[in-house]
Design a protein that fits this description.
The protein is of the alpha/beta class. The protein is 25% helix and 20% strand. Helix 6 runs parallel beside helix 7. The protein binds S-adenosylmethionine.
């Protein structure tokens, strides 16, 4: 086995834990540990590490990752070309190529779960995915979206494209309030482009658990540079259409949000008895559609994924319980 350099060994651990790696070290004459007080202005020694995010995903491939043979994922579907109103009603990445490829990953690759389903679309935006759910076979969809202009756009566009208005409903509100107040009968939850606009994961997942859906589809940015069970913190700006809205926990214009790593997301899902069944084949989509644009910088490097999860009791042995479960043997019981 090839011997690793000291820097490679440090980088491996550093990037696993922090998502950063050392790219360049300048020669310094003083040691890194100093008894001098730390000054506000960084010294040469403090500036000597150039930290850059690790370029590629360090997360292990997941067993549920779908893989196809070259050529299998050539996308001919141009779903939104048939419904072009959706190219006009959003300021959040309404690009033709990105929307159509996301349609493949979210709906075509999970087609069977929509048949006759009652769907909840969290952060329904301008209604594009609520509409796609109906067109994929869902019986009914409830969209939840706090921003007035987006709810109005959703109602107007679906009014134009769906003959039967009893098949959809858009609730203007915050998903956390709606999960508390409404009694919804739901088979499939769509959580698309929302998980990284909150930190209230426990509340979200306990609310979804109470609905007892069969399936949950999550399309989200993840902290792909880490293979730990961690969440990377960020701030959303409430005045951006694509960002979180202010809530009872936010302060001023900014909202604390986070992106979990894939192992972090899986642990949270498992803790609420959801099991990951499938990760859509984004690698295949990008491989077979070389002119695909607008997806390579996130889905293309594993920074964004599409996950199908189902309700399923997770065996205790699968949870990282660190030996806390009491056994029959009193002597080995944790104290
Ligand atoms: C990045 S966009 C995603 C839109 C769409 N679901 C998609 O995947 O293309 C995030 C959406 O979340 C909505 N949103 C923000 N905070 C929300 C909340 N507390 N409850 C429901 N939706 C929220 C925003 O208004 C915005 O429409």
């Amino acid at each position: 086995m090839q011997r690793m350099t000291l820097r490679a060994a440090i980088n491996r651990s550093l990037s696993r834990v922090t998502g950063f790696e050392i790219r360049r070290v300048r020669q310094v004459t003083t040691g890194l540990i100093t008894s001098h007080p730390i000054s506000a202005k960084p010294s040469n020694t403090q500036r000597s590490f150039a930290m850059k995010p690790a370029a590629v995903s360090v997360a292990k491939k997941h067993a549920a990752q779908v893989r196809t043979d070259p050529g299998d994922k050539h996308i001919r579907s141009t779903f939104f070309d048939r419904y072009p109103a959706f190219y006009q009603t959003s300021e959040t990445a309404p690009y033709q190529s990105r929307l159509n490829l996301r349609h493949d990953a979210i709906f075509e690759q999970n087609r069977e779960v929509f048949d006759g389903a009652r769907v909840l679309d969290i952060a329904s935006h301008d209604g594009r995915w609520s509409f796609a759910a109906l067109q994929t076979g869902a019986a009914h969809v409830v969209g939840v979206e706090p921003r007035t202009e987006l709810v109005e756009a959703a109602r107007s566009t679906l009014g134009q494209y769906v003959d039967d208005p009893t098949r959809y409903q858009f609730i203007q509100g915050d998903i956390f309030d709606v999960l508390q107040k409404e009694r919804l009968d739901i088979d499939v939850v769509l959580c698309l482009g929302f998980l990284y606009h909150t930190l209230r994961y426990g509340e979200l997942l306990s609310g979804l658990r109470a609905l007892n859906p069969k399936h949950l589809i999550i399309d989200t940015t993840i902290f792909h540079e880490s293979s730990g069970r961690v969440i990377k913190l960020d701030l959303d700006y409430a005045d951006m259409q694509r960002d979180a809205v202010r809530d009872g926990y936010s302060h001023g214009d900014f909202i604390l949000v986070g992106s979990p790593s894939l192992p972090g997301l899986e642990l949270m899902l498992n803790a609420y008895d959801f099991k990951i069944d499938r990760l859509s084949d984004w690698e295949g989509i990008i491989r077979d559609n070389p002119d695909a644009s607008g997806v390579k910088g996130d889905y293309g490097i594993g920074r964004r994924i599409t996950v199908l999860a189902s309700s399923s009791q997770i065996p205790r042995a699968k949870l990282p319980l660190r030996g806390y479960i009491p056994t029959d043997d009193a002597a080995s019981a944790p104290r």
